[in-house]
Amino acid sequence: MNPPSGVTVLLFGPAREAAGCSRTVVELSTPVTAATVVDALSTAHPNLAPLLGRSRLVVNQHYVEPDVSIGPDDEVAIIPPVSGG
Fold first, then answer.
1. Which sequence spans correspond to the domains of the chain?
2. d(C-alpha 42, C-alpha 50), whole Å
3. Residues near 39 by beta carbon (within 8 Å), at least 6 away in sequence
4. In this predicted model, what pLDDT tens digit does every residue of 40-63 receive, in sequence order?
5. Which DSSP letter does residue 12 get?
6. Model confidence, pTM
7. What is the DSSP letter of 48?
8. Contact by Cβ (8 Å): 57, 49
9. How many CB atoms lie within 10 A of CB 9?
10. Where are the alpha helices (DSSP H) in the chain?
11. CATH 3.10.20.30 is right for the domain spanning 4-79
12. Comparing C-alpha atoms, which of 38, 57, 56 is closest to residue 48?
């Protein structure tokens, strides 16, 4: 097993409200992918889990797919769906 890696995730809007914080750290065994971050967030913050399936993961200010690798210095954010009029 590889050593754990702490990934800080920024949360905005409804994601922040569901988790009760604007940022959280998830500890994961390497290699870390976008999908493993989302899974860890679901476990660490169960109230956030229903929103994650509709949210996008952003790494270094770019939307990413679930298989993208995430490094320890990457900026990671959850962007929940947005609606407006």
1. 4-79
2. 8
3. none
4. 999 999 999 999 989 999 999 999
5. -
6. 0.85
7. T
8. no
9. 25
10. 13-19, 34-44, 49-52
11. yes
12. 38
